Amino acid sequence: MKPIGIIEPDRLKLIPRDTHAAHEFCFHLHDTMGRILVQMERKRAGDISFNLASEEEARLLQSGIHPLDFLSQTGRSELERRAVVNHVTNALYADMLHFIYEALRALEKRKFTVAFALLRKPLTEGLLVVCQACANEADFFDNLKTNAANLTKKKRFGTDGIQRLIESAVGACRGTECINPETINSLVFDRDNSDGLANLFDKALHLATGAPQLRTENYNINFIFKDPTDDDIYTGSTYQQIATVLLFLNLMQIELYSRMHEPNRQHENWLLFTATATFQTLFSSGRSSMVRFVNQNFKEFLECPTCGSSINLRKAEAPRLFIGETLECRACETVQHFPFGWLLHKLELDLFDRGS
């Protein structure tokens, strides 16, 4: 897979070349979530407004009462919930993105312990909180209001509760066809999965671990003797696993923000397409339905302006088009800018509509 080209090559020189595109995709998901957050804050999409019903309400509000208590006491519980969930969503994503950014930069420098210690908070606790908000907003608000200390306590969900929670969150979002709840649960929370992220997170955070499946070996301390030149972290499925969880967080963010502010459907389709189509082309085997979709629907535009040859998009080149908006003509080897996002806005897509 060719690099996408959104990160300077110098930054990626320490990691294997065949992982550059996957790493860039993870950063693209981070950047997309950051841009959505900034857009929502600029639009003040999380704000709520209401009219006072009486002079008595005006006096109560001016008395110094907390706005949330005012909303609760005046029978505006729906607005109270909306205000709290909006505020928490924005703050939580901002916090998670700080950790994700530093973790991805640490992977570029082969600082494995730092990377996985940083990823643990957003990809476990952050994921758990966002799933609750996305799956059942009313229950999430009640727990946040009366039992916030236990929001991230996995024991309260029971044996299969976390997977059911993830299933509910997946069902609430658009574009989740490539998200498998069982896979997410296994990667992030199942310590019996020796190939998942859970054990990497724990070993990165703790110098010694005693659980059978991640027990620290004698004469060893977790990760501190790991050879930084080893490529095992990069050559396995680690990037696919990280990308899977980041994609899920991105899809839930889009859903949560659509509840704050009426979305532009074309813009939302572009966000969903670039994320899910790139994930499919990077990590799925066989032919890509998204590549076929582009070749069929953009055929009249897929012509090289330099030599006039027709261009047929290939799976290995697709991430550069979807994210970097560049297209290479194989006939004359010219790399052209291609306004993919702009053209995608012109299509009436139903690829991500529920039930389509």
From TrEMBL:
Superkingdom of source: Bacteria
Name of the protein described by the UniProt record: Uncharacterized protein
Organism: Sulfitobacter undariae
